């Protein structure tokens, strides 16, 4: 097979052969995991909701992340499908109601006019306080609640991607650490941070286009070191990381129109630019998975 979407780029003849082998293994992987949904799309070629180009593009992310190696790609994909069956990330994104306080620190923006693979951005502002959150540490008290909210935000961002379009196949991340020096010593924050990094590394390969650490103090070096060293992140991925000690410098490097004024741009604040999740067009299989989740919950209640 050679008619892959433009987002599937196989650099050698050997990688092409190995990728084709990977595709032939998908039915066995699905059987092993007892699950066939990945980011809202069906992987089973026999399924009614199967979309071959999208499935190929998603599987290629696992293949590329594992340096075009078959055994490693199979292992990671199998683990991700088992995790998705258990964790239900689509439910976290589109069905569950999360603690209102997280709206202060997490935003999703989408601008079609932005440069390639900078159209979809997740923003995390961990130091913000509000009338109902006097201490920023309060965001990190509930590990499970925080993780489900953060995974839900990532899944929503993925819902705005077009996996067959090389211009919109990745998500950019902005982390603003202004006012969060407490992160250097708070054990609950470290625990949550490590958990989120672990899940993203394991189950969201080849999704990151760029990651900016803004207003990043020296005392938070453990975050960067943990991400880079503890999860064996490739040199290619590390190149996507950018540390800026002043948030206003973002506009100099991040050429996205309408950045908020606090980041050197001329746009409105993030609250005014936050994307309405209700406008995300759900894939048919996402709707089917959510329906199943609802029915299973109803059965549990009965």
UniProtKB/TrEMBL annotation:
It catalyses: a 1,2-diacyl-sn-glycero-3-phospho-(1D-myo-inositol)(in) = a 1,2-diacyl-sn-glycero-3-phospho-(1D-myo-inositol)(out). One of its GO terms (biological process) is Golgi to plasma membrane protein transport. InterPro entries: CRAL-TRIO_dom, CRAL-TRIO_dom_sf, CRAL/TRIO_N_dom_sf, Sfh5. SUPFAM superfamilies: CRAL/TRIO domain, CRAL/TRIO N-terminal domain. Keywords: Cytoplasm, Endoplasmic reticulum, Heme, Iron, Lipid transport, Membrane, Metal-binding, Microsome, Transport. Residues 95-271 form the CRAL-TRIO domain. It is found in: Cytoplasm; Endoplasmic reticulum membrane; Microsome membrane. GO terms for molecular function: metal ion binding; phosphatidylinositol transfer activity. CDD domains: SEC14 (cd00170). Gene3D superfamilies: CRAL-TRIO lipid binding domain (3.40.525.10). Pfam families: CRAL_TRIO. It is a peripheral membrane protein. Its cofactor is heme b. The keyword Signal does not apply. One of its GO terms (cellular component) is cortical endoplasmic reticulum. Belongs to the SFH5 family. Non-classical phosphatidylinositol (PtdIns) transfer protein (PITP), which exhibits PtdIns-binding/transfer activity in the absence of detectable PtdCho-binding/transfer activity. Regulates PtdIns(4,5)P2 homeostasis at the plasma membrane. Heme-binding protein that may play a role in organic oxidant-induced stress responses. PANTHER family: PHOSPHATIDYLINOSITOL TRANSFER PROTEIN SFH5. This is Phosphatidylinositol transfer protein SFH5. It comes from Saccharomycopsis crataegensis.
């Amino acid at each position: 097979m050679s008619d892959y979407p433009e987002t599937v780029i196989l650099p050698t003849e050997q990688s092409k052969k190995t990728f084709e082998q990977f595709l032939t293994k998908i039915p066995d992987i699905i059987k092993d995991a007892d699950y066939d949904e990945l980011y809202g799309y069906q992987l089973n070629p026999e399924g009614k909701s199967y979309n071959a180009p999208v499935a190929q593009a998603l599987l290629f992310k696992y293949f590329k992340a594992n340096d075009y190696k078959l055994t490693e790609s199979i292992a990671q994909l199998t683990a991700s499908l088992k995790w998705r069956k258990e964790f239900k990330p689509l439910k976290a994104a589109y069905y569950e109601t999360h603690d209102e306080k997280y709206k202060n620190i997490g935003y999703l923006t989408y601008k079609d006019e932005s440069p390639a693979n900078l159209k979809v951005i997740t923003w995390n502002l961990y130091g913000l306080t509000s009338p109902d959150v006097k201490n920023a540490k309060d965001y990190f008290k509930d590990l499970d609640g925080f993780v489900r909210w953060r995974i839900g935000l990532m899944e929503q961002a993925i819902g705005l991607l077009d996996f067959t379009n090389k211009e919109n196949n990745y998500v950019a991340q902005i982390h603003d650490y202004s006012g969060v020096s407490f992160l250097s010593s708070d054990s609950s924050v470290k625990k949550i941070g490590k958990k989120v990094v672990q899940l993203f590394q394991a189950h969201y390969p080849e999704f990151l286009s760029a990651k900016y650490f803004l207003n990043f103090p020296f005392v938070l070096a453990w975050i960067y070191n943990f991400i880079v060293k503890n999860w064996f992140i490739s040199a290619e991925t590390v190149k996507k990381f950018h540390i800026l000690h002043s948030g206003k410098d973002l506009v100099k490097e991040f050429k996205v129109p309408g950045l908020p004024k606090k980041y050197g741009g001329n746009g409105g604040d993030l609250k005014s630019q936050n994307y309405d999740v209700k406008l995300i067009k759900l894939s048919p299989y996402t709707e089917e998975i959510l329906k199943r989740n609802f029915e299973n919950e109803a059965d549990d209640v009965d």
